[in-house]
Amino acid sequence: MNKKLYNLVLHSRRIQLEVNNHLKDKKIKVPVHLAIGHEYVAALVKYNFIPKNDKIILTHRNIHYTSLFSKNPKKIYLEFANKNIDKLKTFGSMNYYEKNSDIAYTSSILGNNFSVACGVAKALKKKKGITICTTGDGAIEEGSFYESLLLAKYLELPIIFLIENNDWSMGTTIKERRSQIKLDKLASSLNIQYFNFKRNNFQKNFKTYKKVVQKCRKYRTPFICEFEVRTEGSYKKNNNVVKYHHGPMKLEMKNKFLLKDYKNDILYKISGKK
């Protein structure tokens, strides 16, 4: 595995674990949705990103991106521990803001960032940059997702709709809350190219995502990328599995950065160790 990519994943993991410690100690006063297990996707985006040219639009679960795209994520997350919450310049973790950053917008409202991403992409249409709009399997249920896809295709916007599918939204799995959305069929109906990234196909994912970014830059048109991810932090309570949503994670660690169940840990998997 590419060493630079691995180091990006490790950097994101390190910051998230530090933030998790602050959450457990109740030092951080605002909601934080951790994304341990998602780091590989954010690292791929960062690896293929051109600072100052490209822009990234985030959803409420954004720490794996802010840890890599922010100029000083530690400082900002420590500000969330400030008792004078009303005086914060950063608006909270779910509306993460940093002046002069490549993070153009962060939304705590489900699906709100789609239309904003289209506006940002429209501004970049005649420039060299592209827009990355991140979201999850829950937000694609919103009407704004379809509307934004339709608009992006009509205007031929240089945008990648990047979906992190962890089969979990709030307190339900996909099967528990809705019928299956066949994104490949939806994309095809709008003449948009769709790519699915299996969780363990690291080498293939690396090459495929790079090609998608190159195509988006060249043809100035939208793409959909769906990544299968596993959000760590689930635990058993009264013989029931409680899946992590937000706040401090209950994590059992093998060492400083690897989870106890390290063979399923994305950090271990991309290290190439056997």
How would you describe the overall organization of this protein?
The chain has a single domain (3-271), classed as 3-Layer(aba) Sandwich (Rossmann fold). It starts with a helix and ends with a helix. The strands form two sheets. A six-stranded parallel β-sheet has the order 2-1-3-4-6-5, with helices on both faces. It is globular. β5 (193-197), α9 and β6 form a beta-alpha-beta unit. The longest helix is centred in the N-terminal third of the chain and has 22 residues, at 3-24. With 274 residues, it is an alpha/beta fold. The chain is built from ten helices and eight strands.
Looking at CATH, the homologous superfamily is Thiamin diphosphate (ThDP)-binding fold, Pyr/PP domains
Helix/strand class: alpha/beta
Query: What topology, given as strand order, has the largest sheet?
Result: 2-1-3-4-6-5
Order of helices and strands: HHEHHEHEHEHHEHEEEH
Shape: globular
Helix share bin? 25-40%
**What is the C-alpha radius of gyration, as a whole number of Å?**
18 Å
CATH class: Alpha Beta
| CATH topology assignment | Rossmann fold
Q: Write down the overall mean pLDDT.
A: 92
Q: Number of helical segments?
A: 10
